[in-house]
Amino acid sequence: MKTALLLMLALPAAAGRAEALELSGYVSAWTQDCSGASCALPVPGQRNLPVTLALGEPSSPGQAAAAHSSRVLSLGADGELKAELSFYAVCPYGGAPGTCAGRYFQAQAVLSGPAGAFCSAALNLEDFLPFPVLTCAGVGQAGRRFGLTFHRKPL
């Protein structure tokens, strides 16, 4: 498991940045059999893997900050689900220098293993902190789904 990596991305240049936001939550893996007429309930894999990151906040239009983490979660007999987690704070273009009207946040997951997937959500601050809630899944062989859930409290 790689440790969390904090990256600051400037679009196009890094000016002053506000204080960092603390993201703290969990990721859990699961599988779901959808081979029949309807999908069965998801079966948990590894649960409650903690994720804690600091995410800088851009302060001027055209800037973004990013925090990344890589995780490998067990799916039991179905193997492992590899997840690249990315969190962004974005200050859109178009505002006055030194201001960040319209700041928004993104949570992304790229999954690989028995199924691949890319999932993303654009969120406001209230939905983003203390940790976004998001489900990401890909379909593998025989109609089985392999997924990851971001959550704020242990399951």
Structure description:
The chain is an all-beta fold and 155 residues long. The chain has one domain (5-151). The chain has one helix and ten strands; from the N terminus they run ββββββββαββ. It has one helix at 125-128; strands at residues 5-9, 17-33, 43-44, 49-58, 63-74, 80-91, 104-112, 117-123, 134-139, 144-151. The strands form two sheets. Strands 1-5-6-7-8 form a five-stranded antiparallel β-sheet. Strands 2, 3, 4, 9 and 10 form a five-stranded antiparallel β-sheet that branches. A hairpin with a 4-residue loop joins strand 7 (104-112) and strand 8.
Report the strand count.
10
String of helices and strands = EEEEEEEEHEE
**In what order do the strands lie side by side in the largest sheet?**
1-5-6-7-8
Average pLDDT level: 88
Radius of gyration from CA coordinates: 17 Å
**Strand fraction band?**
over 45%
Distance between the termini: 21 Å
Show the helix and strand layout.
Elements (H helix, E strand, L loop, with lengths): L4 E5 L7 E17 L9 E2 L4 E10 L4 E12 L5 E12 L12 E9 L4 E7 L1 H4 L5 E6 L4 E8 L4
Antiparallel strand pairs: 1-5, 2-3, 2-4, 2-10, 5-6, 6-7, 7-8, 9-10
